[in-house]
Amino acid sequence: MVDTSERRQRPVLLLVSVLIPLMLASCCGFLYWDFTAPFSLEIVNVSGPPLTLDFKASRMNCIMGASFYSDTHKEYLWIVDYTAFGPTSGLTYGIVPERDPSGRGSQPRQRLPKKGPPRPLKPGETVILMVGIQYDRGLSPLGGGRLWQLEIQPDGTAKVEPLPQGYMFPSGPPEDQLNDDFP
Q1: Is there a single domain that holds both residue 72 and residue 86?
Q2: What 3 state SS string does the chain have?
Q3: Where does the pLDDT of residue 27 fall: very low under 50, low under 70, confident under 90, or very high at 90 and above?
Q4: What pLDDT, in 10s, does the model give residues 130-155?
Q5: Is residue 78 located within the same domain as residue 125?
Q6: Of 27, 34, 96, 139, which has the maximum CB count within 10 A?
Q7: For residue 8, is it within any domain?
Q8: Host domain of residue 139
């Protein structure tokens, strides 16, 4: 006669011997993905006028701001700072984004020009767009940015090309040109 306590232990041992390796593999797989999977921010649609850029974001928390720089005229056109938590759907040139409806994040504000809208974009003009982003790697919050070259078209849209990593964005405008009024 077989001991019944031994019979009851077999399924438990089998279950434990299968579950523990599966749980370890899952945890290791998540950690590998968390530390190696890239974040991304892509422009998926361009419309206008006014120039509107629709984004597709992956593995990032928010957009921290955007700067438009005319490479043609060597001048900053428009700088906006904000923290848009949740879906980062897009940006329209010259229109300060509304605060996220959840109440998270900061009140968006225009830093340049100090007052009024930015000057209109000119057909044929080459504009560099830098979008600052915040993402997490492991348990650490990190920041970064994405750069694109926009060639403004006669219909108010733009031909968009991503700029390579290592591209040096021009240094910022003089501090006296920036709006430092915090709402």
Answers
A1: yes
A2: CCCHHHHHHHHHHHHHHHHHHHHHHHHHHHHHHHHHCCCEEEEEEEECCCCEEEEEEECCCEEEEEEEEECCCCEEEEEEEEEEECCCCEEECCCCCCCCCCCCCCCCEEEECCCCCCCCCCCCCEEEEEEEEEEEECCEEEEEEEEEEEEECCCCCEEEEECCCCCCCCCCCCHHHCCCCCC
A3: low
A4: 998 887 777 777 778 889 999 999 99
A5: yes
A6: 96
A7: yes
A8: 40-177
